[in-house]
Design goal:
The chain has 440 residues and is α+β, with helices and mostly antiparallel strands. The protein has two domains: 161 residues, 3-Layer(aba) Sandwich (Creatine Amidinohydrolase, Chain A, domain 1), CATH 3.40.350; 274 residues, Creatine Amidinohydrolase, CATH 3.90.230.10. The protein is built from 15 helices and 22 strands. The structure holds manganese (II) ion (MN). The site of manganese (II) ion has 5 residues, from loops.
């Protein structure tokens, strides 16, 4: 494990906080599925980002201006049963070495050790609202005990998230590059497996098999394999419908490698060839996506790219007769097109600063994923929006023509000095490339 990378991140974080501060940052606990069976554990991303430690129930304490307590790891003390069932006794000296900590203690020592680290009215950074058990501990230690109020407690997460918004070369080589590459390979396997009669979960299995074979530790989120009408359900994860000839199938999935996520979507025809109607919608979404990508470079905002895509989709939906008033296009496009990507699939960092969109900078990684969805309820939603009856009558015919077509195309982009690099450019997405891939 590359302790340098985590040490560099801690130093960058320390430069952003009060020099006398004490930071108390809990990791995730196990969640129980039933009796003695936990859900698979996944460390909290901010905690992992600064420590690299991925076992449950740990707390990191940072005291930047104290040599001894600069990076203290409090870890769970395993019971005898846990030692027998889950691993071995914890060697705090070995952990100290392995994670580059200045000290390692057990969490059951916190009540005793922590007051030594917070001796006077130092500013404390602690993220309230995420870990009820530790919230109560912090309240007891620092709020009910403090007298006079000279003890500000602030949230460290916005500062950590600012750092996480920029990805470095080290992030790419530590797993981000690989996560996106493996996601692409999985998708290719998924596309190749598509044929009438297969079940959505079987396509999911093909994709996730490649993820695991190639070394991904887990999925970045639940795979969406949405055929026919399911494509219009944005976070459809039941994946239990049988693919029908003539359907489209939308596959949105991501591998997670060393705590970095991929997130890619392709939409393909179950029979291997797009119908003319599917092709019209597909070409529109593809054009919108390519227009968006062409706009992505330093200084440009998410809002500006969104507007460029909106214009293409408004124009296109009008030409198809699915809308007559431009403002109605959201009925068919539904969601936003861009989100940060990193250790979390919808990564942290926020999109605005003081209400203004943050301009893109080199190292920002994001997805670009326009979509068009002709859902059964589209007419009803247009009516609710106040579309005049005679327009509705014309639009109803077009909805019938394009019914249950849902297309999303998603790539992962990094902003570079001169523009951007499409990190998933290898995965086929033109009509011709997809049809020829499905013939082989
Ligand atoms: Mn996405």
């Amino acid at each position: 494990m590359d302790t340098d990378l985590f040490a560099q991140r801690r130093e960058a974080f320390f430069r952003k906080i009060d020099r006398d501060a004490v930071v108390i940052l809990p990791g995730n606990s196990l969640a129980w599925r039933n009796l003695d069976t936990p859900y698979p554990f996944r460390q909290q991303s901010d905690f992992y980002y600064l420590t690299g430690y991925d076992a449950p129930d740990a707390v990191a304490v940072f005291v930047p201006n104290n040599k001894r307590y600069r990076f203290v790891l409090f870890v769970h003390r395993p019971t005898e049963r846990e030692i027998l069932y889950d691993g071995r006794a914890v060697d705090t000296k070995a952990l100290q070495q392995q994670y580059g900590a200045t000290a390692v203690y057990f969490t059951d020592q916190m009540g005793k050790v922590l007051p030594r680290m917070v001796k006077w009215d130092r500013p404390i950074y602690y993220p309230f609202g995420h870990h009820p058990k530790w919230d109560e501990f912090i309240v007891n230690q620092f709020i009910t005990k403090r007298s006079g109020g000279q003890w500000p407690i602030m949230d460290p997460l916005p500062i950590i998230h600012e750092l996480r918004r920029i990805k470095t070369a080290a992030d790419f080589s530590a797993g981000l590059q690989e996560a996106i590459a493996i996601t692409g390979e999985g998708l290719l396997a998924g596309i190749r497996a598509v044929q009438p009669g297969k079940w959505e979960y079987q396509i999911q299995a093909e994709i996730e098999y490649v993820f695991r074979q190639r070394g991904a530790q887990r999925e970045a989120f639940q795979s969406i394999i949405a055929s026919g009408p399911n494509a219009g359900i944005l976070h459809y994860v039941r994946n239990n419908r049988q693919l029908q000839a003539g359907d489209l199938v939308l596959m949105d999935c991501g591998a997670e490698v060393n705590y970095y996520c991929g997130d890619l979507t392709r939409t393909v025809p179950v029979s291997g060839r797009f119908t003319p109607e599917q092709r019209q919608i597909y070409e529109l979404v593809l054009h919108a996506q390519q227009t968006g990508i062409a706009h992505m470079k330093p200084g440009v905002t998410r809002k500006a790219v969104t507007e460029a895509i909106d214009n293409v989709l408004q124009e296109g939906l009008k030409e198809l007769g699915l809308i007559e008033r431009e403002a109605d296009f959201k009925i068919f496009t539904i969601h936003g097109y861009i989100h940060w990507l990193g250790m979390d699939v919808h990564d942290v960092g926020g999109y605005t600063r003081r209400g203004v969109d943050i301009p893109f900078q080199p190292g920002m990684v994001m997805t670009i994923e326009p979509g068009v969805y002709v859902r059964e309820d589209a007419l009803q939603r247009l009516r609710k929006k106040g579309v005049p009856a005679e327009q509705l009558e014309r639009i109803a015919k077009k909805i019938k023509k394009y019914l249950n077509i849902g297309v999303r195309i998603e790539d992962n982009i990094v902003i570079t000095e001169n523009g951007n690099r499409n990190l998933s450019a290898e995965i086929p997405k033109t009509v011709e490339d997809i049809e020829s891939l499905m013939r082989t």
